[in-house]
Amino acid sequence: MRREAVLKIFSEIPTLSTERLTLRALCPVDAEDMFEYSRRGDLTEYLLWSPHESLAYTREYLKYVGTRYAVGDFYDWAVVLRESGKMIGTCGFTRIDTVNEWGEIGYVLNPDYHGRGYATEAARAVLDFGFRRVGLHRVEARFMEGNSHSESVMKRLGMSFEGYERESIFVKGRYRTVGKYAILAEEYKNEG
Questions:
Q1: What is the mean pLDDT of the chain?
Q2: In what side-by-side order are the strands of the sheet with 102-109?
Q3: How many Å is the maximal CA-CA distance in the chain?
Q4: 91 burial level (CB within 10 Å; 0-12, 13-18, 19+)
Q5: Whole-angstrom Cα Rg for the chain
Q6: What's the confidence (pLDDT) of residue 192?
Q7: CA distance 151 to 185
Q8: pLDDT tens, 22-43?
Q9: Cα(102)–Cα(118) distance, rounded to whole angstroms?
Q10: What are the beta bridge partners of residue 181?
Q11: If we measure between CA atoms, which residue out of 82, 71, 67, 57 comes closest to residue 26?
Q12: Cα three-residue angle 149-150-155, rounded to 5 degrees
């Protein structure tokens, strides 16, 4: 897999559709919907980033994302409800290793929409895109110990638990243990 090919794919990030969702490029119009959830401490407890302090901060972040899309090195989609057009989160790849042909998937969903299967639906679309369009051999997902909601999504995607990295990251003033799941392209083909 060539890095240039991945950059080309993501420089014009395609829109993905599922039964209930549209996954599309993040854009400035998403600022209010994103701020609605990104300001919440309960959401960011298990994330690497802290709550957004203001709507202006979210707007600046979305401008930055636009610059990353332009060069093809940002691999995240806005998760939008097809029926209402409301942006309820993001889902995509936090990184792609073109040498070893693997990616790490991540997702963040407004807690007001948890428990409805949206995270799994979005992540399944991204997983499918990674294997079929990008040509990944392996997709990983990580979660901070205690984040059972995120871990449940990984299980529903058919990923296998590979273990814990004890106190492997220092986040928000303390060391956190991280669990890892993964699925191989061949396993994914057999799932579907």
A1: 95
A2: 16-17, 21-24, 75-81, 87-97, 102-109, 138-144, 174-184, 160-171
A3: 45
A4: buried
A5: 16
A6: 53
A7: 20
A8: 999 999 999 999 999 999 999 9
A9: 24
A10: 141, 161
A11: 67
A12: 95
